[in-house]
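Let us work through a complete example step by step.
Step 1: write down the sequence.
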Amino acid sequence: MRLPSVRSTLKTADWKNIFASAEDDLPVQLIRAFIRHVVAKLSQSKVVKTIVILADEVAEAEEQIAADVTSILRKAVLDESILPELQATVVISSLTLSPLGAMPSGRHPVILELPERLDAEKVVKSWWAREGATFEFAAAALSDLPRLLEFGAGFLDEFPDSVARNPSNVSELFVHVREQLQGRYFPRLPSFAELYPAVFGEETERNETAMAYILESIFVNALKDVRMPRCTSRVTPVVSLFMISAAAKASRNPSSFAKLVAEFPENIELKEEGRPLECCAMWWLRMRLATAAGKKDFPLEKLLGLEGVDFEDAEDRCMLKLVKKVIFHVPSDDFNLRRSYRKGKLASSRKQNAATFLEQLNQLGKEADEVWLLCAADREGWDILLSVYDTQDSKWFLAFIDLKARQSSEDADQARYVQSLASRAQSRGSVAPSSLLEALKDKRYCFLYITTAEGASSANELAITMRRDDTERFFGPLSAIHSAIRKAFTSS
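Step 2: predict the structure and record it as tokens.
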């Protein structure tokens, strides 16, 4: 029942008769009487056989209401049957309280292992009662904390048609959620070094700092025991991107790193001309570079999420062998975007602009500690170009990234750039693939497909294809958002 329905039920109850004989144990009888009344109201339209009482913020209730409030709730629901043939249980949630004590019912506490992220599609359909890519994107951005989804549901209840009429209004939903955080949560932005393990999916020491971020819902790891372990323990932090972006937006004197974090999630425009997939991937590559700021001899395969990927039939001549050798310096200086990192948009490689396109490629890179990220022109056969200076070979290396690769079995199995690009180039009027490869013959480069196709990732002498499991591992906390966007803006 929603809150307005509960209030209506409370107002219409015959409390005088309900509590006629309840003086001896009023709190317990109040809870039981309320449950009986709600069940009676619901039974007018449906059969009620099971009830689950959800009690959140139990530790705070114990501190601010009464020390034994949890035991009263358990006694009311579990000690004896409330109604014939009605099954009842209690689910309590808290970061600092463990279920203790024996109950006369003989039932023992059971720890529920909750997922670190709820399914965005299920949230939209069953909780928000909406449908469409915009709502799935919004749910994916909030799905690592159920409380954020609750705030989102509140916005949709108050303004039911706002987002449906205009998808750009999803930003108003995010603003509403951030407003609801005030006074309830106090998010703070970890340093880029503290976020590095969460962004790259690596373990870190389970120390006081990591546990503080977990308790503050900055990291949203599902842990059975939130107390500090007695022995050395490690954890792979799972970061809530929405929480750290809220912290970054609240900063009065933001660093360049905070400004980058604060772009999320409004930087992803949910319209074709906004190129949402490119925005999503570009921002995530920038985040990976930013959290690795200042690292020397950084492997390109690590930046691209290829480290540790189990590729099938990786021959000696395959593109993967080349990528594994590339080492570069990640810009430092608090990741100063104006000095050490460049982004922009390349000219089109269509036949009439091919010379300009190739000239721009030749002009990339003036300093060895620069990293270039560029978006392709419209109707290209690839989406993002990453350029780094290989310190091992003293040459620039180009990575052409395709975010919209077809997922037919033929393309996915062969992972051949020329075959996929040929069909795209034919419809988009780009320079012929053979001409592009000819132009790149003196350069060091690779082509990378990032797909959500099932199966194992693969590589050969022409391209690398990353499939669903490895794509999700690469995007990490952004994977649900990437999946929702790809589903909405690609035909395969």
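Step 3: interpret the result. The longest helix spans residues 26-42.
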